[in-house]
């Protein structure tokens, strides 16, 4: 390059276009920078968070697969491919932006070390065309999913659709101005790429008749248009939901790994032994949220993928995880002066004490519930995890919902009344039904072998402690599965024992309700019992118990090896200790329990067991594995009235029945109860059986 500023034969004075290009850029960068700084300060005003930078390799891997690789978006083919082409396209088109700015100074500009290679020219054109095709795909998707026509069934219902259409228009303008600029260049002898830049040359032919002078002016015009559109788009992005372009990489890299499922997030300040007068449990005002929760709010793309899979939303409840996040975001922006003032004057707690740091919003501050989020919205959540699983930018909906529930329960004593009985029963009797410990061994009556009940330390020859769970021990239907598991363990020669009356509720429903205090009481008592009994290996038949003991007790000092009965059955069948040799001639559809499947990734073992049974024909429901649909019992909803919309268990059972299967199988006592109820409500109990995996395997044993 001969000097930075080189005069040109065509396209007007280079100094003028340089001045225009730079002026537009400086103004846009100033506005966008100010906005990003404001958003950064808002997020930083959140309560301290912890563990967000542990496991750096895992975080880098997540960034590579989810942001660069667009892994979650590829789950849906057409929109996934279109989004990936747009995202990758904009990475490649960063080169065209550098070239455009270089061209402001010199028409012979080339990116140092890269130059004008044919590959770069090809990629730039290839992705320009790909982005246009992607925009066409997005347009079709948006028309098909129009909320005006499809109302609640559209995933864009409630999203800012005008802004989305404008964004598509702006992206189209970026590409059109770029291709126009490059096409005009081909006609003035200034285009540095050969025919590898196929689109630029192709379009250039259409302009060729205009002559060099006009094409020179077009070069300048399209160049300035391209820079202006990009800069305007940059500003627009920082004021719209497209902020995710900047926020998503940050949100993904700071999200819980491998995913915000399984254990609920808890902070050191949720330790009930550290309570002070100022302690605020959970989140009652926007200032109670941790910074990561605020980052979630500004990252939401309003894509509605979470809404589309939410069982509450899909059965007519008022809860949409997307709308919940958007409402909280509105609250955050409205509360910005207060948040920033407090943050600047040190009003928030800066110690690493978690989200509960005694920062009530003040008298005029809108509450999260009910001012921002209606109670019916809050209490509709099943904590099924479908939203978290689906969200392409790793928003952690469940932790935020439960934080608000914690505030409602522990600070305000406001929760659905009928669930109060469940909490009292756990507190007083150790189970949600209030039947008491003395009933916990009733299921063993009638078995033709003895099951040791551990009273002191577990004997050395006992391999597993069988954690039966409240439903497994106390519910009539679930007991049948408990007995089947016990008989099969006995048949396979597995030495096991139970705690009997010393077993108590794990605290799962209390925790999902928001009663962290009761959960911790239950958890600590159970950990104490298990540790005193010197238990090492536990088999649990309830996915909720399995999740609590394996995933949540470690943070309270309880570390045990826990296996779910479906995993153990798969292992025993594999080892030849159980042989399902008799034909079980039936078609079976397996319902994945949320806390076994999505929350703990046990998808294959139950299916492997069914595959090992002669005569079984497995039929998958449309929503299965990661996309399974909740039975309606999660999030302590089992103990709450369901008076709005269609019952979730009916929706799931309708799907199961539509497969035409003879048997609906599951591996969770709560799913069993909920689906069985719905089959009976449909008066289909004569035609369709609802069975736990264990009951099915037992029928087929030699
Ligand atoms: S956890 Fe399930 S029920 Fe709750 S908001 Fe997410 S998808 Fe909806
Ligand atoms: S929370 Fe996630 S999945 Fe839901 S709308 Fe926002 S970005 Fe999309």
Describe this structure in words.
There is one protein chain. The protein is mainly alpha-helical. The chain has four domains: 45-75 and 260-414, no CATH class; 76-144 and 161-239; 425-572, Rossmann fold (3-Layer(aba) Sandwich), CATH 3.40.50; 579-700, Rossmann fold, CATH 3.40.50. The chain has helices at residues 14-44, 56-68, 77-105, 118-144, 147-150, 161-186, 198-207, 211-238, 244-253, 291-299, 305-309, 311-314, 321-334, 336-344, 368-372, 375-378, 386-390, 397-411, 417-429, 470-474, 476-491, 508-513, 516-532, 543-552, 565-574, 604-611, 648-658, 669-681, 693-700, and strands at 464-467, 496-497, 537-540, 561-564, 586-590, 616-618, 663-666, 689-692. The strands form two sheets. It has a four-stranded parallel β-sheet. Strands 6-5-7-8 form a four-stranded parallel β-sheet, with helices on both faces. Helix 1 packs parallel to helix 8 (211-238), helix 10 crosses helix 13 and helix 25 packs across helix 26. The model is unreliable at 1-8 and 348-358 (pLDDT under 50).
Brief write-up:
The protein is mainly alpha-helical. Helix content is 52%, strand content 4%. It folds into 4 domains: 45-75 and 260-414, no CATH class; 76-144 and 161-239; 425-572, Rossmann fold (3-Layer(aba) Sandwich), CATH 3.40.50; 579-700, Rossmann fold, CATH 3.40.50.
């Amino acid at each position: 390059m001969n000097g930075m500023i080189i005069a040109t034969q065509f396209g007007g004075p280079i100094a003028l276009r340089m001045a225009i290009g730079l002026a537009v850029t400086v103004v846009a960068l100033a506005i966008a920078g100010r906005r990003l700084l404001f958003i950064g300060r808002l997020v930083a005003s959140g309560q301290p968070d912890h563990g967000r930078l542990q496991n750096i390799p895992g975080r880098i891997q997540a960034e590579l697969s989810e942001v660069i690789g667009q892994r979650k978006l590829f789950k849906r083919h057409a929109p996934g491919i279109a989004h990936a082409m747009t995202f990758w396209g904009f990475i490649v088109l960063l080169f065209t932006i550098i070239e455009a700015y270089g061209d402001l100074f010199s028409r012979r500009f080339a990116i140092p070390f890269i130059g004008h290679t044919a590959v770069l020219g090809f990629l730039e054109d290839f992705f320009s065309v790909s982005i246009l095709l992607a925009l066409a795909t997005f347009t079709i998707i948006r028309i098909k999913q129009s909320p005006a026509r499809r109302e609640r069934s559209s995933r864009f219902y409630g999203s800012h659709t005008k802004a989305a259409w404008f964004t598509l228009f702006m992206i189209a303008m970026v590409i059109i101005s770029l291709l126009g600029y490059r096409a005009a260049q081909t006609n003035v002898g200034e285009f540095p790429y050969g025919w590898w830049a196929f689109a630029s040359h192709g379009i250039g032919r259409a302009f060729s008749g205009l002559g060099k002078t006009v094409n020179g002016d077009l070069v300048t015009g399209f160049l300035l248009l391209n820079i202006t559109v990009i800069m305007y788009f940059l500003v627009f992005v920082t004021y719209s939901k497209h902020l995710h372009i900047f926020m998503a990489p940050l949100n993904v890299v700071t999200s819980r790994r491998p995913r915000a499922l399984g254990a609920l997030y808890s902070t050191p300040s949720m330790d009930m032994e550290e309570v002070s007068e100022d302690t605020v449990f959970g989140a009652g005002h926007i200032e109670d949220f941790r910074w990561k929760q605020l980052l979630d709010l500004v990252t939401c793309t309003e894509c509605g993928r979470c809404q589309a899979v939410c069982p509450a939303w899909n059965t007519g409840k008022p809860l949409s995880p997307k709308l919940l996040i958007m409402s909280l975001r509105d609250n955050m922006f409205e509360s910005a002066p207060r948040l920033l003032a407090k943050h600047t004057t040190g009003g928030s707690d800066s110690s690493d004490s978690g989200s509960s740091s005694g920062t009530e919003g003040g008298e005029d501050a809108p509450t999260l519930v009910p001012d921002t989020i209606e109670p019916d919205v809050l209490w509709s959540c099943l904590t099924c995890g479908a939203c978290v699983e689906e969200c392409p930018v790793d928003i952690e909906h469940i932790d935020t919902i439960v934080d608000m529930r914690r505030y409602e329960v522990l600070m305000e004593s406001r929760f659905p009344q009928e669930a109060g009985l469940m909490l009292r029963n756990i507190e007083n009797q150790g189970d949600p039904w209030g039947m008491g410990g003395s009933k916990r061994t009733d299921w063993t009556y009638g078995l033709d072998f003895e099951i040791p009940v551990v009273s002191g330390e577990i004997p050395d020859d006992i391999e597993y402690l069988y954690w039966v769970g409240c439903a497994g021990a106390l519910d009539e239907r679930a007991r049948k599965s408990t007995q089947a598991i016990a008989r099969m363990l006995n048949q396979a020669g597995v030495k096991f024992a139970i705690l009997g009356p010393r077993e108590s509720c794990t605290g799962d429903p209390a925790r999902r309700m928001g009663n962290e205090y009761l959960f911790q009481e239950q958890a600590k008592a159970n950990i104490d019992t298990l540790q005193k009994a010197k238990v090492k290996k536990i088999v649990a038949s309830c996915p909720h118990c399995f999740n609590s003991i394996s995933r949540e007790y470690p943070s309270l000092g309880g570390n045990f090896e826990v296996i779910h009965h479906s995993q153990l059955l798969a292992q025993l069948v594999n080892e030849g200790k159980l042989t399902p040799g008799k034909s079980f001639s039936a078609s079976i559809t397996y319902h994945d329990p949320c806390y076994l499947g999505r929350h703990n990734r046990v998808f294959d073992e139950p299916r492997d067991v069914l595959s090992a049974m002669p005569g079984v024909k497995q039929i998958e429901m449309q929503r299965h594995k990661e996309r399974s649909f909740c039975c309606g019992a999660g999030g302590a909803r089992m103990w709450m009235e369901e008076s709005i919309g269609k019952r979730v268990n009916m929706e799931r059972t309708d799907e199961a029945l539509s497969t035409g299967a003879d048997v609906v199988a599951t591996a969770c006592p709560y799913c069993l109860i909920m689906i069985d109820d719905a089959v009976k409500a449909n008066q289909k109990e004569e035609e369709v059986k609802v069975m736990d995996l264990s009951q099915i395997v037992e029928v087929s044993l030699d």
